[in-house]
Amino acid sequence: MGPSPNGSTSFPVKFRPIMQHALRLSHLHFTYRSWKEEVCDSLFVDLNLDLQEGGKTLLLAPFNKGKTTLAKILCGVCPKYFPGTLQGTIELFERDLSTMEPWDLLGVCSYVSQNPQEQFIATSVEEELAFPLESLGLEREEMARRITRALEHWGLEDLRTSSQQELSGGERKRVLLAVQEVIQSRLWILDEAFDDLDQRWRNQLKATIQASDKTILVLASRYLEEFTGLFDQVVLLDQKAIQNPSLDELLPRFSHLCGDDLPNPLEGQVLEMSKKQKLSCMDLEAERKRMSTLLGRSFSLHVPDFHMESGELVTLVGPNGSGKSSFSRLLCGLDDPIGGVIKLDGQPLAGKELSKKVGYLFQNPDLQIFLPTVEEELSWSLKRRKDLKSEEMRARVAECADLFGLTLSDTPSTMSYPQRKALQAAVYFLLERPFYILDELDSSLTYYSALAIIARLRKRGAGLLLITHDRQFAARVAQRSYAIEDGRMASL
Amino acid sequence: MTTSTFVAGKGWLYRFDPRAKILLMLLLCVWFFLPVHLVGLYCAVALIVFTGGLNTGFSHVWKIFRSILPMLLFMVLFMPFNVRTGRPLFSVGSVTIVTEEGLMQAARLAGRFIGISYVCTLLFATTIMNEVMLALRWYRLPYKAGLVVTLAFTYIPFIADSFSQIAESHRLREADREQGRKFLQRLKDLVPTLTSALVVALRSIPNLAMSLEMRGFGLQNRRSQYHNLGSYRHPFTHFLLSVIIPVVLWLLCKA
Fold first, then answer.
1. Which end of chain A is more exposed for a tag (fewer CB within 10 A), N or C?
2. Is the Cβ of B174 closer than 8 Å to some Cβ of chain A?
3. What pLDDT, in 10s, does the model give residues A309-365?
């Protein structure tokens, strides 16, 4: 199909010719440009991939092997906004991608990012869905019909006028899936789309993929149980190219690449516990109101009884928006409850005093690391302690870097995601908090990487509260569990 | 990468036509520079803040006031020392430190600053961004220019949000046996927080551009509009009120 006279999208929504190939990548090479003008290692070398129209493909790749870069290349925004050298040919529905701009791909190819926050451009859920439809020039009635249907499908009716900063991670992901649904593009690229979603919405996404007649490419760094029987084709991105062995051969190979066959670092771990402490709260209450909308009711949290002891590994599971993060903020003293108290060994604690006892590792490590080198990052808090001499501080920093596999001279902003996550954990390890909250640590990490971080933080006998959506992972690590639903917490 | 400044509510300001609201905002901004009594200026500011508070809630008023407080303090503290004319109020030897004129000018400047900041904030707190955009287009502003204006008013709060999150993260990283931090140390600690907020903002620029283009920004075909301003009744009355309110305030407060 040739370009349209006005140069805009040349793929009418109603008329779709029957084509064999939705996507064809041939001899793709890509290398990022270094901001230091150094020679970077190539991310892809002679990468080839064919997707049949209407086919459903799962592309598995360990972390930092270029999944997200590949998705951005397919959407025409890399190397445009993320500079690098791209060679080879990419054909989308038999049209050369190099002749098209990203906006020409609206209606052809749509992308759900691993990090939902980076894709929001509007100030409410409804406007987010409307923006691409306005770009397509659709009639208002058609827009309203599609938006209403997608909001219902993804359970977002009450959040229609909410702004994105008031949504939980899972709700944000659902908004992006709803955006994808209203655009009705021919190729869907879903980058770790199952992450952040609770079981109900994972099932919904699975059903949506099963029922869809679109070409779907799912990019994942973990093989989830939801994937079984869902795809026509499963491929592996390894050694800078696509590998296409049989599934029986591919899964063990992928598992090995992710380190899943390594021994569980928690098994048989001996804790260096100096004293046993207990963190507890009773009848804890909090309220949160969405400022940007009058729809829905205000959220209230009620925790009748929660306790955690030194060395314990406790999980907290619950659906998206159920109050997991609100509880975490209370427990580490960032927010104050409207009722109830949090106690450490029977002594009530609040605010800054509580923050010094309970470490909270945010889901996004980039909000907690901010200095130019690993060494500065690790020594930032220690420098403020008057009981510590500089030699001792340096020794502790070096020992900690060694334990977490970090290089002191590295620049955090250029480190890989698992390394940044390890650095975030190392920072807290040095703070020697008796308790830690790990917010969705397993999301975007291999099981082994997540377990290794847990084992290191727990080494000195800290009590850990792990927030997760992944039942497999929760079952693997938890000694005790709590569940939270609609703001009500209960012990499992 | 955007943060909404809209505060949901049902007051009369929410039913006021956005086109008229923009006119009212501009006229009130001009009004603050007209020669009015100082008492009149503060009465007008108090009236606007009270009206805004009735619509958006007084917690929102306090939030706005708190966000402009550092700048306000800076102006009020340094302005009197820059004015040398007028009756001296405080002198050291032959050097006049503060004059009556200096104090009056500082008070007038503070009143104007609070008034203008609050009026502008009120527009975005009581109007959804898409309707601000439609109103700007009604004033013949090109689509791209309107988008830039509305993006700026959502991107700046996003940076402010990032700053708060990073500041929270710093608080969580305080050492258990940390020595009491002095004022200078606190100021010094602001540097990495500001740097991180800047890095977050800079990193988000390619993502914002990417997301806009992936949503079809750049297509040459005519955009349609999901929202319209047809639901606002009596726009003529609203425009009339937008002119009458500043005029009446002027007649009541003129010097």
1. C
2. yes
3. 998 999 998 887 788 888 999 999 888 889 888 999 888 888 888 888 899 988 878
B149, B184, B224, B225: best to mutate for the A interface, most A CBs within 10 A: B224
Spelled out in words, what is the top-level CATH class assigned to the domain A278-491? Answer: alpha beta
pLDDT, residue A203, reads 93
Q: Do A133 and B169 lie within an 8 Å CB cutoff?
A: no
Give the neighbor-by-neighbor strand order of the sheet with A299-309: A347-349, A339-344, A278-288, A299-309, A488-491, A480-485, A313-317, A463-467, A435-439, A358-361
ipTM tops the 0.85 cut: no
**Superfamily covering domain A21-108+185-257:** P-loop containing nucleotide triphosphate hydrolases (3.40.50.300)
Domain range summary for chain A, segments of one domain joined by +? 21-108+185-257, 278-491
Cite the DSSP H helix spans in A212-280.
247-257
Per-residue confidence band for A469, with pLDDT thresholds at 50, 70 and 90: confident
Residue of A111, A133, A137 lying closest to B221 (CB–CB): A137
pLDDT in tens, A371-387: 778 998 898 888 877 77
The dihedral over CA atoms of A173, A175, A177, A182, expressed in degrees to the nearest 10, equals: -170
Q: Against a cut of 0.95, is the pTM above it?
A: no
Please report residues of A whose CB lies closer than 8 A to that of B191. none
